[in-house]
Each structure stands twice: as C-alpha cells, then as structure tokens.
Amino acid sequence: MTSIMIASATRRTEQAFWEGSALGASLRRLSFDGRIRGRIAYQNQRGLPDVYNQAIEESEGSDVLLFVHDDVWLDDCFLADRIGDAIRRYDIVGVAGNRRRQPGQTAWAFADASLAWDDKAYLSGAVAHGPYPFGAVSHFGDVPADCELLDGVFLAANRARIVEKGVRFDPCFAFHFYDMDFCRSARGAGLALGTWPISLTHQSGGAFGSAPWKKGYERYMAKWGD
Predict the structure, then answer these.
(1) What is the tens place of the pLDDT at every residue in 97-107?
(2) What three-state secondary structure class fits 211?
(3) Contact at 8 Å (CB) between 159 and 65?
(4) Cβ partners under 8 Å of residue 195, min gap 6
C-alpha cells in the first residue's frame, strides 16, 4: 500500500481551509481512503519551499509526498491508485509538463519571457480550470510522457528517492519558479520526471508576468544562467 502525504500551504485559518478551500473540500471527499493524509500549513506566511522542505524532513512514514496548491480540487476519487501507479514509473510526477527544456524558458509551458507557448508537440498532460470542481479541461498533449519540466500546481514525489539524492526546494523561489528549479535539480540528480493522467481542477491560472514573477525570473536566471 502506497502511503501519501499531501503537503500544502494556505493563508486561511484551519477552519476556513476545511470549510471553504478547494483542497479542503477535496480532502474531506477523499477521507474514505486511509492511504491519504494531509499536512497543511494554516495561516501561512512562509514561501512554499520552506513548507515543502519541512514536509520532506518530517514525513518518514510516507512513501509519496504530494505538493499541491490549496486552490486545487482533486477531482479523481482514485487519486491514491493513480499516484501509486505513476510512482512505479517515475520519481516525480505531474499532471502537465514539457518533454524538453530550452534556454531562457520561463515555465513548463512557455518558451521565453514573452510568455509565448512552446511548441505543443513537446507538451503533455491536462489540467481543468474554473471556479468549481470538474472545470473545463485544457489538454496539452499525450500522457504519460517523460518530461524535463512539470507544472508546480501538482507534484508527487517518491520520498525515498528525493531524500536519497538530496533534492529539495530552493527557498530563494518563494512562490514563483520553485517548480522550475525543483525539476532542474531533480533532473540534475538523475531522477525521472513524467506526467500521469490524474483529474484535477485549478481555480487560478497563475500570476505569470506580475512584478513578483519578474523578480523570481531574475533570481532564476541568476542561479541557472539559461
């Protein structure tokens, strides 16, 4: 049996998270499955890497760590089974990703700082968006697929493998580019990344192009240089 710890951060109080957030509603819905448990940072003011790294260090009893945003509905009632299957093939799994990485790439889907989409031939996965569960689906490409980059909205990692390789999230990237950096660190350590068919709905489309995002890109380029 694959045990899964879901690690997330929310600015809501504990009560507001369970009563009003997409992820809280999802965890209540999935409470029948004893393989899944949550580790939520309530009223969080820290960057996601700090929250996620703490979860890595304090989750010795879990086989898989699932890093996911609090504004995500986990629509798939077979979530634990799908993650279990995925982790037998990949060390780190996402719902959307890119088979390649190009110099200057700004996200798994974007080719450059202009936010132009990469060639769809290299994209994989599907994500639904909208204000309610089971939203309209954006299909990016065939899945599963070996990838270089994954969308940070949902990252499932084989805990033993990332601990063995010393792969962590860089606190330098509080809310933007933490996923790009994590994927590159994982690939540099020889870990296998890929997409898997898992149903979810994300309320947000992201804050690409915002002032904090641009500062994150500067830090990312300073670290990686391409």
Answers:
(1) 999 999 888 89
(2) helix
(3) yes
(4) 93, 94, 95, 96, 97, 124, 125, 143, 144, 145, 147, 150
